[in-house]
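Lab channel / #folding
Pinned by the channel admin:
"Please post every new chain as: sequence first, then the C-alpha cells as a reply. Keep commentary short and put observations after the output so the thread stays searchable."

First post following the new format, from NK:
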Amino acid sequence: MNFNIIKSIRDFYSDSRRILAISYKPTGEEFNKSAKIILLGILIVGALGLIIAIIVSLIITGTLSLV
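Reply from TO:
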C-alpha cells in the first residue's frame, strides 16, 4: 500500500513536469482572443439563464417576478 502512494506521487510529479515542459506563456494577442471568447461564453450562458428564469417564472406564476 505504501508503494502505491509513492508511485502515485512519482507519476504525478512526472506528469506535471511534462506539462510544464510543453507549456508556454501566451502572447498578448493570444491572451486577448482567449479573454474575448471566454467573456462571450459567460455572457451567452448568463443570457440563456435569464431567459429560462423568465420563462419558468411566467409558466409557474403567470406573472414576471425575478426576485
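NK: Residues 25-67 form one domain.
TO: also worth noting, The helical segments are 2-22, 28-61.
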